[in-house]
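step: validate -> pass
step: tokenize input -> pass
step: predict -> running
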Amino acid sequence: MRIVDVCAFYSPRGGGVRTYVEQKLAIGPEFGHDITIIAPGDDHQTIERGPNARIELLPAPRFPLDRRYWYFADEPALHRVLDRIQPDIVEASSPWRSALMAARWQGPAPRTLIMHADILSAYAYRWLEPVFERSTIDRRMERYWAHLRQLGQAFDRVVCASLDLSTRLVDGGVANVVTNPMGVEPDLFSPSLRDPALRAKLLQKCSLSPEAHLLVAVGRLSSEKRWPLVIEAVTAAARVRPIGLIMLGEGRDSRAVVSAIGGNPHIRLFEPERDRKAFARILASADALVHGCEAETFCMVAAEARASGVPVIVPDRGGAADHARDGGGWTYKASDARSASAAILHALEHPFACATAPARTIRDHFAELFADYSLLPSHLRAA
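step: predict -> pass
step: emit ->
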């Protein structure tokens, strides 16, 4: 199949979506498919990624709130690229304007929407839930729910990577929703990579001895990730036990994160580790992964921690919570720093309660996804 992903969230300096795109470009051709990623960028260019895999960039404006990203602004140009490629499947990776652009293309190929974003959790619930009940917020957000229901009718599949998101969409009346969890890179993450010397070195960077506990936090530095809450929770727990926190991330909220750290020598912020093998060693050497975002659609880093035999400490809502099930870790009340601090202490007091990695890999995800695509009939949408 010729599969085209209209991917508004792709950026060479991005996080989870960039990782997902790179995996699709590598794995798709192994299954016999031709993969094209259409993404917005500064200039028009085609970046070949090997036989039957490429990224095609279309000139687009930069996203004003995060200059690492762009947004599609020329629908006819996008449609011309789709006309030239004539894909068998068209994917959209954002529930915003680009999804409607892909839906309005007049070609016959089936459409699928990959829900890489949970807008309601990332913004509406996060901003308003301290004041209003979620049911009240949903009523106030009826215009957005109507938009989601429109997408459910326009797309043959709405693919969610977590049960939390798919359940909420179905309950909200969105059609064609399926759950297909993602997975980790094969043969990369393993408990065998735990390195006591590396662990001691990381704790030394936190001005602590090897007898202290080591937590790791990984992700984009943006407000929906709730890093100040994580920092507050770790700081409170560290009054009871010696705890160091290594944070790996970059983003527009770096100043807010640094301010929240406030010179605490036991919490260190570093740029992302882009060497995946080195990152796998860091993750396996931690005592736990701590995460603050209840708006994750899957939470890849939590899956990677599970694959490394490392317990997760995550909110009880969103995709991250899936990874704490079946002995994988602990949950705390979302957006509650006190609850998070208590969960951290409980996790460190019960270090052997974590079951090791789930077997699911990203290859399993794509195998299931492509198999489902093969069952979708072509539609003469122009008619």
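step: describe -> The first helix runs from residue 16 to 27.
step: cleanup -> pass
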